[in-house]
Design a protein that fits this description.
about 0% strand; globular; about 100 residues; mainly alpha
Amino acid sequence: MTGSTHNPDYRLLLGILREARKQQCVSQVELAARLGNTQTFVSKCERGERRIDLVEFVEIAEAIGVSPQEMLAEYLGRRAPRGSAGGKLAQKILD
């Protein structure tokens, strides 16, 4: 597992967050206001210049108006399977 923001799986996660924001018709400015942060913060997160942690992921999902569980399930469904126990454990937790 890599900590890079250039990791394909991480880029997929960012894409899902961005897609959800746009589907909910929430601008970066509006999302930033809901988070109590700046538009620059949201932009850097979406571009992968700033890595988000799990707590931030949940806060962003909720601020967008989408269930964090649904977003994570979307990510797991679109992610290339690894065949590792870790991926299976994550899916089991969601079920």
